[in-house]
Write a structure and sequence with these properties.
single chain; ten-stranded mixed sheet; eight-stranded mixed sheet
Length: 620
């Protein structure tokens, strides 16, 4: 099947495949995709970009690995130490720690595949790491540099601009933004890594560790082409192509568009390199059935596959000691990988484990590292097919005697958590953060909704008073039509809130309102504790007020429901104080379901944990 068609045929029969095989080594987690059929004598090692760009390319890496497997080419993708699902370090080692992880990955790939020859494929900062790794690694057949970082200083400046743009899109207030060193989308680059990057300059290279190279150049980035010419000058056979679809890939993980043409170019180039390395594996591959657990400070994590045909990838995080309370099922948000926005799910899982609470985080089908389900739509957000993914995760927990369990989700994950709690009695509790809705009309366009999510009126008021907003307004850099539609949407929500008492008396006037009220009442009848967490200016809070009202008396109709509002936080709950509130709510539900005392003794990490009960629309 031609690579460029893969992105339009995700529901075909060939996509009913297993997830890649999880492996662990050197304190990190990798995903090995063995060759399907007769293996080649060369394997591919993927070297990821950093931060926000890595989140956006996660699914692209998975699809590339599947296509390579179909062509008989094994591959390995992995997380650098201190990133993704890997163990954390102090960061004082700088880039050398990532180079060591890459070296260990290359050696392990050779053992797993039996191949002595490797091709390195790196994007962004991963391209520079590929060059460094290749210089120390024997048997490098080729190196692909996709939108490569050629100058560390220039890259750090770009990250600064990128950070401001993302913070602006998130609606973060000035004191909600990170002031630590280099940070993008809540991810902070260790100072030692940034210091090493300032000395990075690929243009000074006088040699290259491979005879073949592919360079995918970004439109408007002349340094990419300059690097290609430099490599040609030192005797490398270079194939230079435009990285079509790059901007659409890295703009946002939620709306990322897979670059089909670029993928086809990469596969074609790998095949051309393999034509000169046609021998089969030089040694017998390692037989690998499961990954060894990775142990850290107070936790033990096991990456695994589960579901029919091992189709889903996840990480089970358990306390390195006695277990207490219920198991948290941490759902993904939109198309973010299971590690979470700014590694928030990794951090949350390990923090819960240190308090005795187990968790499972995983990618639903067609998200990041989990292949799509046969017959399911390409757009899986708000689709019923995701309920089966949650059911499979609950079955895994049941098989491992880790019930009772409860579901946790943010944004679209909050919607999925609510629906899963309604559909599966094994969901004994629910924590939903900034859920934009609890009811989805199949007639709605998910894609249109994702690209035009309205903000709260409070957010628009605050932004309008800022000088930079006025400057953008005058210069025409603001989509006035889109902003106007969003303001009208928010005003309509406020109007419907005023009509809510009438909807309570005559629920048939709004099928949505009736379904939501019935759903929460059903959970109440089953004694399922529900905690809703909202950022103070999130559009989801206006949605909640529309259906439940803002007065304490109205919420008393739902004694199982807690609502907590967090000030100075964005939709992703990026600031540390917002994550603290989120953690406390998750822990509280876990302990109440698990039969622990509702009043929890505060620790040095928790200033206080409120007892179970009604919280109301109060700031936290």
């Amino acid at each position: 099947m031609a690579f460029q068609n893969r992105f339009h045929e995700e529901t075909s029969a060939i996509c009913g495949r297993a997830a890649a095989l999880p492996v662990t080594f050197a304190g990190t987690v990798g995903l090995f995709k063995p060759a399907a059929g007769k293996p080649s004598g060369t394997a591919v090692l993927f070297l990821s970009p950093w931060g926000f760009e890595e989140m956006c390319t996660r699914k692209f890496w998975r699809i590339l690995a599947e296509e390579l497997s179909d062509a008989g080419i094994p591959s390995l993708r992995f997380d650098y130490i201190g990133t993704g699902d890997a163990l954390d370090t102090g960061g004082s080692e700088g880039l050398s720690a990532w180079h060591e992880t890459a070296d260990a990955a290359a050696d392990y790939l050779k053992s797993l595949s039996g191949c002595e020859s490797v091709i390195l494929v790196g994007q962004g900062l991963g391209g520079a790491i590929a060059v460094e790794t290749g210089a120390r690694l024997p048997g490098v057949a080729g190196i692909a540099l996709l939108a490569p970082v050629t100058s560390g200083r220039l890259y750090l400046r770009e990250l600064g601009f990128w950070s401001k743009m993302i913070d602006e899109s998130l609606g973060l207030s000035d004191h909600g933004r990170s002031s630590e060193g280099v940070s993008v989308a809540g991810l902070v680059m260790p100072d030692a890594v940034a210091a090493d990057l300032r000395r990075l300059d690929l243009m000074t290279c006088e040699s290259f560790p491979a005879a073949d190279s592919l360079v995918l150049t970004r439109p408007g980035r002349p340094t990419d082409s300059t690097l290609a010419r430099k490599l040609t000058a030192v005797g490398v056979k270079v194939r230079e192509e435009v990285y079509e679809g790059y901007d659409g890939l890295v703009s946002n993980p939620t709306t990322a568009e897979m670059p089909g043409h670029a993928g086809a170019v990469i596969i074609d180039w790998v095949r051309s390199v393999l034509a000169r390395h046609a021998d089969g594996p030089a040694r017998k591959p390692i037989s690998k059935s499961s990954a060894a657990p990775v142990r850290g400070d107070g936790f033990c994590e096991t990456p695994l596959r589960f579901g029919g045909n091992d189709r889903l990838f996840g990480v089970l995080c358990q306390p390195d000691g006695p277990t207490t309370g219920a198991t948290a099922l941490l759902l993904t948000t939109a198309y973010d990988r299971s590690a979470g926005w700014a590694r928030s799910s990794v951090t949350m899982a390990r923090r819960l484990a240190r308090h005795g609470i187990a968790s499972l985080r995983f990618d639903t089908a067609n998200v990041a590292d989990s292949p799509p389900r046969p017959g399911a739509p390409d757009q899986v957000l708000y689709a019923e097919s995701q309920l089966q993914d949650v059911a499979d995760a609950l079955q895994l927990l049941e098989d491992r005697d880790l019930l009772p369990a409860f579901v946790v989700g943010r944004c679209s994950g909050g919607y999925l958590a609510f629906q899963s709690a309604l559909h599966d009695a094994r969901c004994r509790g629910l924590v939903a953060a900034n859920a934009p809705t609890f009811h989805w009309d199949p007639a709605q366009s998910v894609d249109m909704t994702l690209r035009g999510v309205p903000r709260s009126l409070a957010t628009y008021r605050r932004k309008l008073l800022r000088r930079e907003t006025l400057q953008r307004l005058i210069s025409g850099r603001i989509d006035m039509a889109g902003a106007g539609r969003n303001v009208m949407t928010s005003l309509a929500g406020r109007l419907s809130h005023l009509c809510r008492p009438m909807l309570d008396l005559f629920p048939f006037l709004s099928r949505e309102h009736a379904a939501i009220v019935d759903g929460f009442r059903t959970l109440g009848t089953r004694n399922v504790p529900v905690s809703l967490v909202y950022s103070a200016e999130d559009i989801g809070l206006e949605y909640a007020r529309k259906h439940f009202g803002s007065e304490r008396a109205r919420l008393k109709n739902y004694p199982h429901l807690r609502v907590t509002v967090v000030s100075d936080a964005d939709h992703n709950l990026t600031p540390p104080h917002a994550q603290d509130v989120y953690f406390k709510e998750i822990r509280l539900v876990a302990l109440s379901i698990g039969g622990e005392h509702a009043r929890v003794v505060a620790t040095s990490e928790d200033d206080a944990v409120r007892p179970r009960g009604y919280a109301g629309f109060q700031a936290s």
